[in-house]
């Protein structure tokens, strides 16, 4: 499972190169989470998850506050949460999560990105069964044994705990996201290198060089779309 974390970390680093795009996407998802419930993260679980994730991407407080204030106002922007599934080069599998105010536009843009870059859209359920929804929480300054002891004392169940480079990574069921973070925060851990609710592939595939290049073009095309929030895949991108 450590290799999967490498993929998450690499993908995160690549996305961070375009901070304006990242901030715009977070502004939208924070607005939607705040609008769908209370604009207070202590009273709104979905908003709390989004804000924890935003923190690991260094989203400025001004972006967060602006989105929450907008949700408190009278303006009404309606967004639909959509999930697309498809196949990339050499049978690679891809899940695309989007947040849009124009379903037809988004569907057309996602389909076009697949078609122009060696992929094709699949039907609902054609790919997702090969992925597991997972909470991934990473931190520095602790060993895996220390983190395990903290979580055991707090009676929090997790799937796995891995040490990789300078980080310790906790993999857990999505509904344990807050329990894991709360236990760690109670133990004095307040900074996280990653705090994600993600989709992890049950097994990875390695692409030939040509297929890898085509896959990267497809990923760039999908992630560049304004309405796309997250893209998950099962490609081993290496160390």
Automatic annotation (TrEMBL):
Record's subcellular location: Cytoplasm
Molecular function GO labels: DNA binding
Domain (TACO1/YebC-like N-terminal): residue spans on this chain: 3-73
Pfam family membership, one: Transcrip_reg
Calcium in keyword set: no
Domain of life the protein comes from: Bacteria
Alphabetical list of SUPFAM superfamilies matching this protein: YebC-like
Keywords: Cytoplasm, DNA-binding, Transcription, Transcription regulation
Ranges of residues in domain TACO1/YebC-like second and third: 79-235
PANTHER family xref list: TRANSLATIONAL ACTIVATOR OF CYTOCHROME C OXIDASE 1
HAMAP family listed in its UniProt record: Transcrip_reg_TACO1, Transcrip_reg_TACO1_YeeN
Family: Belongs to the TACO1 family. YeeN subfamily.
Protein name: Probable transcriptional regulatory protein ACFSCX_12190
Source organism: Bacillus salitolerans
């Amino acid at each position: 499972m450590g290799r999967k974390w490498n993929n998450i970390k690499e993908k995160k680093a690549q996305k961070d190169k375009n901070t304006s795009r990242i901030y715009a996407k977070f502004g939208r998802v924070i607005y939607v989470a705040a609008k769908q419930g209370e604009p207070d993260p202590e009273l709104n679980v979905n908003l709390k998850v989004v804000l924890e994730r935003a923190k690991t991407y260094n989203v400025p407080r001004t972006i967060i506050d602006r989105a929450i204030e907008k949700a408190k106002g009278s303006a009404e922007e309606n967004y639909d949460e959509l999930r697309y599934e498809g196949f990339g080069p050499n049978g690679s599998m891809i899940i695309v999560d989007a947040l849009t105010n124009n379903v037809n536009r988004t569907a057309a843009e996602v389909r076009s990105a697949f078609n122009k870059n060696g992929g094709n859209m699949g039907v609902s359920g054609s790919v997702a069964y090969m992925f597991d929804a997972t909470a991934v929480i990473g931190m520095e300054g602790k060993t895996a044994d220390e983190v395990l002891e903290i979580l055991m004392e707090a009676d929090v169940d997790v799937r796995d705990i891995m040490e990789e480079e300078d980080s310790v990574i906790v993999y857990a069921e999505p509904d344990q996201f807050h329990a894991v973070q709360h236990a760690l925060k109670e133990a004095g851990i307040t900074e996280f290198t990653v705090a994600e609710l993600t989709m992890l592939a049950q097994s990875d595939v390695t692409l030939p060089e040509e297929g890898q290049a085509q896959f990267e073009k497809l990923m760039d095309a999908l992630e560049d779309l304004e309405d796309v929030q997250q893209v998950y895949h099962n490609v081993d991108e290496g160390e």
